[in-house]
UniProtKB/TrEMBL annotation:
Pfam family, one: Glyco_hydro_3
Domain Fibronectin type III-like positions: 701-770
Entry GO MF terms: alpha-L-arabinofuranosidase activity; xylan 1,4-beta-xylosidase activity
Sorted UniProt keywords: Glycoprotein, Glycosidase, Hydrolase, Secreted, Signal
Organism of provenance: Erythranthe guttata (Yellow monkey flower)
Protein's recorded name: Fibronectin type III-like domain-containing protein
């Protein structure tokens, strides 16, 4: 979405309001809540509506939607193919804003949701998704989604939010410079898929188990191969992503496929960019063919805002606006975020470019979604979740979960001589330095944020443990001027130093990719100079979405600890302090590769290829394919404790695929076989591992199971096939069981996009454990 930045004055007044609010000790709402958000079929106002089939909640959705569509004129229908849908007062239907956001808490992007001083002032702001992903904890993903959907329903009941949320963002974080990488679960298709499914289900599933209904509607975006904002002369509105069928099916599509097939998401958003010469929102193969046809989306396809206008005005994809509208609608688009379709569909219909059947299809999908949400069941406060209100937003539990999520995500990257955790009793004075240390601009929230319930900066969090002295060390986050002398002065006098650096939304965000992946401006200079004069431990805390080349800090023995905190949300400062002072043992793992700066200098951001190219020297992308040096690899992350894995049961050394009689591979030499039934039946084995905490502290540990397939079909060097997080006391142990399905988990995608089981030697890795086995026929 091309989100307008919030007006500064407005933001400031809201911030002030929040602080005033927080300074009150009693949280009894002193303001009366607003009226419920818009809803149709208000029989209390108009008893005639009761006789309408579409208003009858006891009938099935299909019958009701058909009745409604049947009652509308073409003009009225056109009002419901755009995001600011127009009410039909003769039928008791109000207008509706489809665009609300719930990426990591209710956001203020989009007109569907709003924070107001006399209604809902704030909502829980969880860590930006990239940090939550680093927890590798699927139950946490689910709990966060559930807390957010409850706050969303509560906000809807008081007229502060819609019911359709355009979250999550499940694009693969392909390049470290991507400004929106922070919004995603990272670079791995399996982790992204599991995140998508857990989050979508938590937003959508109702507690009464009624699968035909939705708590709120989620949306997986941006379909597909979208992950460039604005880099050099390229921008997302005109970028034509050249993607091979293999990369598409192997990397870019899996999170969307899982989202629709396993998450049953109610919406998919098509992206601005083109894929192989066709705009995503005007591509019948990708929309009608894949999303609707193969994956059977039960819901609506929406454009990014306003992709349809973009394909006409920026991409000049069609000669007239009517043809542009027609290619979108006829490709399978149901809802336009924007007004392009409102302006041009009618003319397109009269020119015969769009038929009314297609319009009916679009509005049927849109209305069915609203019907599943209860929009046509009268007042939402009389429905399931109708009792939710102001007291269900920013609850203690939700705010505690925001802190918990930050704690679980923070990644310990370096801990020289176990300098961490710091002891709150022996550290008598602490210098807190850096432009993100006392951030009051909501940098910790990351993009797509709303007003947070509370906001604890790292300085405040650390000061709760020990006395601190503070200096920002830079004129601002961009750090064009480092205030080295002032920073050194305080650093040289204290027992320990914490430096909080990194980026913010002016450096990496929507519409803005980075050029360099080093720390901004003179931050590196500041850090190195401060480290020189420090007497005790120096702990570097990095806030960022993408990776940073901090090789200098990794190698500097004076810098004893490094933590990555993503954008840790409203409780980020508390969580950072809890990790530094050992109230929490860190367990996050990087959900993305941290590359050296040379990567940004060598690699064309527009190159969508995942696989390296030995002839051009192109190194490939992500841990699955990249062959160069890293600053920190995918999956990296330390603990204050130590964990060991042992095989609890021996693994097979040979797996035999039973081919059907007369299979071509029986008579010729095959490198792989199709991963299809019946060969795939019961082709699998269990991996049972004993995980032991052999250190001194209680902590959580993520078991990551990787496979290395044989080198056929240009397969990944390595891929994550399963993961599980366990919590263990010192000396504690637990057996973790994974069921590995050879066809599903160990197969690779071939050059044509088909799943294949490679024949030959496969290797499974878990930490230092390795096991090889042969797949034969
Ligand atoms: C309407 O248009 C769609 C998309 O072009 C086409 O598939 C369908 O057959 C048409 N239906 C009728 C009744 O003409
Ligand atoms: C990020 O930091 C810069 C200063 O380096 C500041 O000007 C800007 O307002 C900050 N961005 C946001 C979105 O707060
Ligand atoms: C990126 O780094 C290069 C080399 O250090 C520098 O010349 C350039 O100005 C940097 N670009 C940005 C946007 O900071
Ligand atoms: C980068 O890729 C773009 C197309 O995506 C191409 O126009 C440009 O020449 C490439 N640049 C280099 C240095 O390879
Ligand atoms: C996963 O997250 C849940 C919710 O916060 C938490 O209760 C659980 O302990 C976490 N699991 C591990 C192994 O840390």
């Amino acid at each position: 979405m091309a989100a307008a930045p919030p007006k500064l004055s407005l933001l400031l007044s809201l911030i002030t309001t929040i602080y005033i609010f927080l300074s009150c000790t009693t949280i009894t709402p002193v303001f009366s809540a607003g009226k419920p958000g818009p809803f149709a079929c208000d029989v209390s106002k108009n008893p005639d509506l009761e006789s309408f089939t579409f208003c009858n909640p006891s009938l099935d959705i299909e019958t009701r939607v058909a009745d409604l569509v049947n009652k509308l004129t073409l003009k009225e229908k056109i009002g419901w193919v755009i995001s600011g849908s127009e009410g039909v007062s003769r039928l008791g239907i109000p207008g509706y804003w489809w665009w609300s956001e719930a990426l990591h808490g209710i956001g203020s992007n989009g007109p569907g949701s709003k924070f107001e001083p006399d209604n809902v002032r704030a909502a829980t702001s969880f860590p930006q998704v990239i940090l939550t992903a680093a927890s590798f904890n699927v139950s946490l993903f689910h709990l966060i989604g559930k807390a957010i959907s409850t706050e969303a329903r509560a906000m809807h009941n008081v007229g502060a939010a819609g019911l359709t949320f355009w979250s999550p963002n499940v694009n693969i974080f392909r390049d470290p410079r991507w400004g929106r990488g922070q919004e995603t679960p990272g670079e791995d298709p399996l982790l992204s898929s599991q995140y998508a499914v857990a989050y979508v289900k938590a937003l959508q599933q109702r507690d009464d188990g009624d699968q035909t209904r939705l708590k709120v509607a989620a949306c997986c975006k941006h379909y597909t191969a979208y992950d460039l904002e604005h880099w050099k002369e390229f921008d997302r509105f005109t970028f034509d992503a050249q993607v091979t069928q293999q990369d598409l099916d192997d990397t870019y599509q899996p999170p969307f496929k899982s989202c629709v097939l396993d998450g049953n998401v109610a919406s998919v958003m098509c992206s601005y960019n083109q894929v192989n010469g066709k705009p995503s929102c005007g591509n019948p193969e990708l929309l009608n063919g894949v999303v609707r046809g193969q994956w059977k989306l039960n819901g609506y396809i929406v454009s990014d805002c306003d992709s349809v206008e973009v394909l006409f005005n920026h991409q000049h994809y069609k000669n007239s606006p009517e043809e542009a509208a027609a290619v979108a609608v006829n490709s399978g688009l149901d809802l336009d975020c924007g007004s392009f379709l409102l302006e041009h569909v009618e003319a397109a219909v009269s020119r015969g470019l769009i038929n009314e059947t297609s319009i009916n299809r679009a509005v049927t999908n849109n209305f069915a979604t609203l019907m599943r949400l209860g929009f046509f069941d009268g007042n939402p406060t009389n429905q399931l979740y109708g009792n939710l209100g102001l007291n269900d937003i920013c609850t203690k539990e939700n705010q505690e979960l925001a802190r918990e999520a930050a704690l679980q995500g923070i990644v310990l990257l370096k801990n020289l001589g176990n300098s961490l955790p710091l002891s709150p009793t022996s550290v008598k004075s602490l210098a807190v330095i850096g432009p993100n240390a006392d951030d009051k601009d909501f940098n910790m929230l990351g993009s797509y944020f709303g007003n947070p319930c509370e906001y604890t900066t790292p300085l405040k969090g650390l000061t709760a443990y020990v006395p601190t002295v503070y200096h920002s060390g830079c004129n601002r986050i961009l750090c064009d001027v480092a205030q080295v002398d002032e920073a050194k002065k305080i650093a040289s006098t204290v027992d320990a130093v914490v430096l909080v650096v990194g980026s913010n939304q002016t450096i990496e965000t929507e519409g803005l990719d980075r050029e360099n992946i080093t720390l901004p401006g003179q931050q590196q200079l500041l850090i190195s100079e401060v480290a020189k004069v420090a007497k005790g431990p120096v702990i570097l805390v990095i806030m960022s979405g993408g990776g940073m080349d901090v090789q200098f800090a990794k190698e500097n023995p004076k810098i004893t600890g490094i933590l990555w905190a993503g954008f840790p949300g409203e409780a980020g400062g508390t969580a950072i302090a809890d990790v530094i002072f050992g109230s929490h043992n860190p367990s996050g793992r990087l959900p993305l590769t941290w590359y050296p700066q040379s990567y940004a200098e060598k690699v064309n951001m527009t190159d969508m290829n995942m696989r390296p190219n030995p002839t051009t020297g192109y190194p490939g992308r992500t841990y699955r394919f990249y062959i160069g040096p890293t600053v920190y690899p995918f999956g990296y992350g330390l603990s204050y404790s130590e964990f060991k894995h042992l095989l609890a049961e021996p693994l097979p050394t040979i797996m035999t695929v039973d081919l059907e009689e007369g299979h071509a591979c029986q008579s010729s030499d095959c490198k792989s076989v199709d991963a299809v039934e019946p060969m795939c039946k019961n082709l699998g084995f269990g991996v049972h591992l004993t995980v032991k905490n052999v250190g001194k502290l209680t902590g959580s540990h993520t078991v990551l199971v990787f496979s290395r397939p044989p080198r056929v079909h240009n397969a990944p060097r390595k891929q994550l096939v399963a993961f599980r997080k366990v919590h263990l006391r010192p000396k504690g142990e637990e057996v973790v069981r994974f069921e590995i399905d050879v066809c599903k988990d160990l197969s690779v995608v071939d050059e044509l996009g088909n799943r294949k089981v490679a024949l030959g030697k496969h290797v499974l890795h878990v930490g230092n454990l390795k096991h090889s086995f042969n797949v034969t026929i």
